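Q: I'm teaching a short session on how sequence maps to structure, and I want students to see two examples side by side rather than one. Could you give me a first protein with its sequence written out and its structure tokens following it? Keep the formatting plain so it prints cleanly on a handout.
A: Of course. Example one:
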Amino acid sequence: MSTPVVVTDASFEDEVLEASLPTLNDFWAEWCGPCKMIAPILKELAVEYDGRLKITKLDVDENPSTAMAYGVQSIPTLILFQGGKPVERIIGYKPKDQLLKHITNYLPAA
């Protein structure tokens, strides 16, 4: 069973950019209401797509460098990385079905 991986400015390159799987990174903060609303959905996706999708979480208050590097101006911002490059950006809370519309085309076959 997989869970979202907490990343930092220091571990972002190893965990996200060099990941072998498409990686959906959640730029979030503890005080953000919509971030708390989307967190359970991301946990579900981590379990359901284990082995096909990696989910990571970066707290923007504790790790501002990475957030600034990717132009994150509002949270939650989800960026899907594939081969170390951002390929999809989702801003704000989205229900599970809408998130899947953005990411399923990038996932390897089951």
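Q: Perfect. Now a second example for contrast.
A: Example two:
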Amino acid sequence: MLAAVGIFDLIGVIGSGWLSDRFDPRKLLSVYYSFRALALIGLPLFLGPEIDPPLIVLMVLFGLDWVATVPPTAVLCTRIYGPERGPIVFGWVFAAHKIGAAAAALSGVIRDVSGDYAAAWYLAGFLAAVAACAVLLIPKRATLSHDRKESSTYRL
């Protein structure tokens, strides 16, 4: 199953780069996080000793959106903060993501308390659903002063 995630991750990130050049990156992120929420919430329902077709579908979904969020996030950072500051902001977004990933270790505490990981999967799915809604709150047009002398407007 991990190999399937990896294969579909390659397809997802390449496809996402192509889509990010053509569509609103906010909407793409919303779709990706929605699919991620479905996969995370569905995982404890279908995870078991046998590999059933619904589990394969979930792994394909998870693979397609695993790293697919990177291209539209990079596009948003560059459009909002400009070509000079956008990559720096993207680096901070990436660093914050790693802090969040480290917090996922708390799923062990959830398992100790509840006896399984289901609640952790459901919580992660809920947070992905929140992210799917939150990215749509990013303004379609963002204005940022790049220096004290001028202000630039970037389209999203």
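Q: What should students look for in example two?
A: Point them to this: The chain has one domain: 2-137. Also worth mentioning: The longest strand covers residues 141-144.
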